[in-house]
Amino acid sequence: MTTRKTYWACQVLGWGCYSAAGLAGASRQIGWRPTVAVGYLLFGLYSIALTELFRREILRRGWLNADAGRMFRALAPGVVTVGSIQSFLVIAINQALEPSSNTFVREPGAALWLWVSVIGATSIWTILYVALTAQRRSREKEVHLQLAISEAELRALEAQINPHFLFNCLNSIRGLVVENPALAQDMITRFANILRYNLHRDPNHTVPLASEVEVVSDYLVLESVRLEERLQVRMAIEPGAAEVPIPPMLLQSLVENAVKHGIAPLPAGGELVVSARLDGDALVVEVDSPGHVADANPDASGLGLANTRERLRILYGSRASLRLENRDGRVAATVRVPRTA
Q1: What is the span of the domain harbouring residue 29?
Q2: What is the C-alpha radius of gyration for the chain, rounded to an integer number of angstroms?
Q3: Is 74 among the domain residues?
């Protein structure tokens, strides 16, 4: 909004000053007349309108994105066209206001000088517009480049997570095919649900927490076949937290990490606690399991946690975090994300 106001202020000031200077010069040469003042007032108004139309055409055709040579070849005919229309309107309006004393009709040299001077003014307008908007265009290109890079990074990180996840699920099912075909059939159905979810791609790279909880529940059923009674699960999801969007596979990564490093190595297994709550304008998701983090390093990272932390950084910047901490023989992985992107 500020940029637009500045643009229109420059339009009015620039063409207003040009018209005022022309009126002052004409008044010294031929004396002050109301018709001369009206002519220069109209010149200022239609010059603003014509250059605004020219600007829109420049943006529509993308001429400013071309290299210098192509930009010049595209803009030059436009400058001549706009300047010619301005000159024609000056002569036509002057003829309409003062048909008996139209200098441009009696003296072709005056008309030529008018055409050259107006094209010069329009050329200056074009040069100033290109120069003053160059920095903004550069910033926009940089932002678009960063967005493209972030999108590519997210795709790469998601691709790294998926094979690891699928491999673990297939391992859980493999032993059931001969031992318990009926259960294996049920597990394959759950696995298909996970695959369908895992292959889904949201353009915003987020899904409701409730969707994550569903796929994690299927994953934990698969793991319970392998770990049996060694895996105990307790979930505490606040109703208001269920619809908050989070990155897909984020909760799954935390749960998988807790099962793999916290519960599976223990002969007696243990309890996995998954909780989610709202804290002001943030969603706090926590996965608590048996174990111990060396030195209680909050930034400890394996591949899964490193990817999770990087995805949070790309999507939310400094507004999101992932921390690990020891709690009396247990490890809590806590993710904090804003409720709105």
Answers
A1: 2-146
A2: 35
A3: yes
